[in-house]
């Protein structure tokens, strides 16, 4: 029997946009749609097992050999300065890294700024390039709250539709870089399961072309 290839798929936004693409690639992902509280799914018609994971954990599973493939946002990979082997940009889950705050924020102010973010490395790198020393406060979620409750002067976060910023009366002051969903692989798995992994990549490339 063929050994199953384990794919860590990031829960939430990435999962929602990746499942339809996997379907176009010909994979039967019905068990994942019907997941309830389950986390591991053997796909019925292919040698792949999907494991739902938190984004920052995908690299941990990959580097420890617990999974063979990861499907994760480039925001997470960039923040983790991860050298995981990237095989494919799925061209979905497109977001932007932004600097945002309340409309009265002055990005040119020389006062040492306090920045709230889930992405301290990206934030540090951005301000270092501008020659600015800032205080960074790491926040785990709902980063938009930080300038609203007086925790930070501004935030560095990702935005997709812009709805969260708009509904909280926050303004974008700068665009840092683009984000999209990537397929990454454990190099050891690539050696051991080259055919199955490249078969999946070929099918995903076909699905991306079919969609466009
Ligand atoms: C991200 C980000 C924003 C939101 C923006 O959070 O941190 O809060 O999405 O999306 P929008 O521009 O479409 O409104 P995510 O949904 O990944 O959840 P989290 O804060 O729990 O990490």
TrEMBL record:
Main site of residence?
cytoplasm
Transmembrane segments in this chain: where?
Answer: none
| Record EC number | 2.4.2.17
Picking any one GO biological process from the record gives: L-histidine biosynthetic process
Q: What does the UniProt keyword field contain?
A: Amino-acid biosynthesis, ATP-binding, Cytoplasm, Glycosyltransferase, Histidine biosynthesis, Nucleotide-binding, Transferase
Q: Name one GO molecular function term.
A: ATP phosphoribosyltransferase activity
Cross-referenced Pfam families: HisG
- Keyword Magnesium carried by entry: no
Describe the location of the ATP phosphoribosyltransferase catalytic domain by residue ranges: 56-206
Q: Which NCBIfam families match?
A: hisG
Question: Which family does the record assign?
Answer: Belongs to the ATP phosphoribosyltransferase family. Short subfamily.
Q: Which PANTHER family match?
A: ATP PHOSPHORIBOSYLTRANSFERASE, ATP PHOSPHORIBOSYLTRANSFERASE ATP-PRTASE
What is the role of this chain? Catalyzes the condensation of ATP and 5-phosphoribose 1-diphosphate to form N'-(5'-phosphoribosyl)-ATP (PR-ATP). Has a crucial role in the pathway because the rate of histidine biosynthesis seems to be controlled primarily by regulation of HisG enzymatic activity.
- Name of the protein: ATP phosphoribosyltransferase
Organism annotation: Paucilactobacillus nenjiangensis
